[in-house]
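writing this on my phone so excuse typos. first protein, seq and then structure
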Amino acid sequence: MRHGAIPDSRPATLEILSGIPIKQIDEPFEFITPTGAAIVAGVWRIVRTDAGASRWKIGYRIGSRKLPNRPE
């Protein structure tokens, strides 16, 4: 970080996602970064105002962590 280390990004991520329905999952890892949350929030604010919008059902991932409680 330009201004030093940030010890915990969760408060920032939750603030960015405030007002957007999110679900808590029982995993000890970060699943969204503040940058990812900002992208989701921007798209959410556009999509939720479109009466003809449908929910997306596609997911992508980057990385190789295998989680026993999550599908591959």
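second protein below, same order as before
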Amino acid sequence: MYNFYRWFPQGKVIFLAPTRPLVSQQIDACYKVMKIPEKDTAEITGRQKARETLWSTRRVFFCTPQTFQKDIEENRCDTTKIVCICFDEAHKATGKYAYAQVIQMVESSGAKFRVVC
């Protein structure tokens, strides 16, 4: 995740976890371990009003797959800039679960990205 952040200075890195507590837990780990500057990161929740601004001004995002899916559907984020999507608990990426849906959506946008599980 950190390498994609470094290698692609204009690219977006997305970290998805199935619950908000897991999202928060991963943010803490990323700050402590990788030292990605907070000014480049955002926790995206369904309750924020300025999500579109965050998507356009930040580079590393932490959110649930459902929130990410909704933001793609409502054109809040430019999926063509995504270079890496990280899944926590990737075993859930089957069928109609949001993990599978967002991969299809990002892929259909023409983005050149990697998936990390």
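Residues 20-33 form the longest helix (14 residues). thats all i got for now
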